[in-house]
């Protein structure tokens, strides 16, 4: 229900109140003077009784609205508080598939983790377990996918779609075990990850999440590519544009609010490439596992995948998905406004490194129940902030 409507109704009702008070006092005066036998006064009493019954109906109406209003405020606060708590998955989930670039078979397990663990990638195919943390400063390669490395040089690559799924689903703590270097590409999007995470559900805790709020505009350019991040109220806005010479892709742009919008199309948008680039990619050891099952391939003005595109803006939507995944390498939910033209993993990483170089660019905070700002109450768009 819209609070503004409830409030307006309340104000209108309040404006009638003095009139009713005056009528009640007149009625009492009539009785007091004991002249109700006068036909004129009886008529007045009748008129009053009619109005009085209206008053009672209005009062009941007001009382009901008031109760609903109170319940909604309470519900909204508890909803926001549960949103602002750290979450993990209810139980372990498993995936298997191939790596897009390595072409290697991989099994991946996502395990629940305690608060403040964050996201940890764990390679279990070595002589001992190696943990690799998805942090912007651990990104060792961001040319065609996001690759992270630890101090021992152990890598995990193509983490961006899984990281985006965690961000969108509201997961703060999990351990991701995998028996190969590369995260399985699945169908080229985050759809499978989101679906399985939703199927098992989330486990909430009492520990508040941390939020990074951008305080100053930071921007970066690389030739035609440009990306900036600026402050926003309580949202993460991503405004993304791609420009391709290809006639089918051409110029495509989309703007989303990560915490407010329905992200179904973003999650199901697949990675893509031009047909003429495949040979070069494969020669340089990339896209070894690439196929029409896990990528959209565009030749001229045609999509080679039989089922075509999943949505009208699938190309730019996939770039937005990548961007969300790369943003989660900050380790927190971000409140800010991103503008990007022709960017990708590398530019996002360079921008975020620039943001965190200067502490005046951002602030990190937790929201405790006792000091929840009034501005956050009624903001349903915070529903997916955690
Ligand atoms: Zn991608």
Q: Classify the fold: give the CATH topology of the largest domain.
A: lpxc deacetylase, domain 1
Return the string of H and E elements. HHEEEEEEEEHEHEEEEEEHEHEEHEHE
> Number of helical runs?
8
Largest sheet, described in full?
A: 7 strands, mixed
Taken as a percent bin, the fraction of beta residues is: 25-35%
Poorly predicted regions:
370-386
What compounds sit in this structure? zinc ion
Computed structural class: alpha+beta
Helix content: 25-40%
Return the average pLDDT rounded to an integer. Answer: 86
> CATH top level of the largest domain?
Alpha Beta
Description:
- The structure is a single chain.
- With 386 residues, the chain is of the alpha+beta class.
- The protein folds into two domains: 2-83, no CATH class; 85-381, lpxc deacetylase, domain 1.
- Helix content is 34%, strand content 26%.
- The protein is built from eight helices and 20 strands.
- It has helices at 3-32, 39-83, 160-169, 191-200, 264-268, 278-283, 314-327, 345-357; strands spanning 85-89, 93-98, 105-112, 119-123, 130-132, 139-141, 147-149, 155-156, 174-178, 202-208, 210-214, 218-222, 225-230, 236-243, 251-257, 272-274, 296-299, 302-303, 333-341, 362-366.
- Strands 11, 12, 13, 14, 15, 19 and 20 form a seven-stranded mixed beta sheet that branches. It has a five-stranded mixed beta sheet with strand order 2-3-9-4-5, with helices on one face.
- β16 (272-274), α6 and β17 (296-299) form a beta-alpha-beta unit.
- The longest helix has 45 residues, at 39-83.
- The model is unreliable at 370-386 (pLDDT under 50).
- Bound molecules: zinc ion.
- The site of zinc ion has 5 residues, from α3 and α7.
